[in-house]
Request: fold
Amino acid sequence: MAERVAIFDTTLRDGEQSPGASMNAHEKIQMALQLERLGVDVIEAGFPIASQQEFESVQQIAATVQKPGVAALARAVDKDIERAAAALEKAVSPTLHTFIATSDIHLEHKLRMTRDQVLEQAGKGVRLAKRLIGRVEFSAEDATRSDLDYLVAITKVAIEAGASVINLPDTVGYTTPGEIEEMFRYVIANTPGSDRVVFSSHNHNDLGLAVANALAAARGGARQIECTVNGIGERAGNTSLEEVVMTIKTRQNVYPFETGIVTEEITNASRQLSNVTGLPVPYNKPIVGRNAFAHEAGIHQHGVIASRLTYEIMTPESVGRTRSELVLGKHSGKHGLAKRCEELGYTLTGEELQRLYDRFIELTDRKKEVFEDDLRVLIASLRHENFETYRLIHVRTSGGDPTMALVKLQHGEDTIFETATGDGPVHAACMAIERITGVSGRLSEFQIRAATPGKDALGDAHVTVEFEGKAYYGTGASTDIIEAAIMAYLNALNKYFAMTK
Ligand code: KIV
Ligand code: ZN
Reply:
């Protein structure tokens, strides 16, 4: 029987460290529930010492999810560990994940500690974590640039102190598949007690090797892979969950492992994450990109019609891409809509369902066919509204050079409108918003694409706006693309308010 490789999902911790990819507590819970449906073994919910907000969202996730374990991150220092343990109090199966750097570069320039001091602190940290929470994961940060025998020494200390999982991360995305496989083999073979723990691999994608490195680590003996949906994360991101899982599933002859992932939930997880964070999925991204199963060349199309085996190594159905056809029509009832949302992985309150239904009916007046991606973007924009400081009532633009915009916003009980001119409709509308809110933002990225096929498609806008030097992503959707862009701008602005005010 194939050996099990556990999937440790860090979308809500390392993934959230993607610049601008911040999620509020409600969005994190929705994402955690989707990860539960996806079948991950552990959800790393956050880094509780980072802020009160972070502490509370770890607490809420710990109290909500039932099946997967919940992990919280802590440096190997008492106050971090105690805070993480407190946040995990209600978790059914908690893991306290504590780390300290082990490479000489980090010891010298960051920690300013000797190797012996780090060994002592690691042991002390794991012992405290073990006293507070039964299951402890220890990470040797920057393991892949650490001395191998020192890694053996610190792994031995962590095991003796009670760690159940030893993680050897490629923190800076520097290693290669051959090297990391060898590193795991060496540490496992040379550390007394290594048979009592699970070895874990956590990789960053700076050289585009994160997935290959995670798979090589598994060949070297790792039985847990740490990854994120869509591969989001610090800098170039982390190991992409969908790529690593589908490689294992598709190439059993090379990677004879099994995971507990319900692969049919992959597309739901990917879309939901993109909609809440505003981080678009590149069209050519393996598994989850729009083009991942699209055959363009005539020769390929003919081949696939004759037999899928000619050009398809896995089916779109196996990753949950079957139901992307027409969803519902104008005469579909609220019940049908609710059922479809459930299939897409959304749990809506009665009030949310009513609002969604109203939007849906409005959309069917403007658009003949409604697809599941339309529903996803509608749900995302509806959920953003739950946390809005300012809500768009309407935007009108006219003229050419300069363009004039009239923007009307709802702020609490007040309705405020302003006009402004600018170079084009989006600029003019942003200037009007700046007059209303008194906050100036720099629109550094702006993309708009059709959520679904057809000339009457819903425009799905993604923006990055900098407020006080920090980037915030925003999304918005409408059949009117100026309105979609302004909704996305306001979504980013509302995130800024939620994080800072
Ligand atoms: O990249 C890294 O080393 C980490 C650790 C904290 C596990 O994220
Ligand atoms: Zn990391």
Remarks:
- The pocket of zinc ion (ligand 2) is lined by residues 14, 169, 171, 202, 204, 234 (CB under 6 Å).
- The chain has three domains: 3-277, 324-382, 388-500.
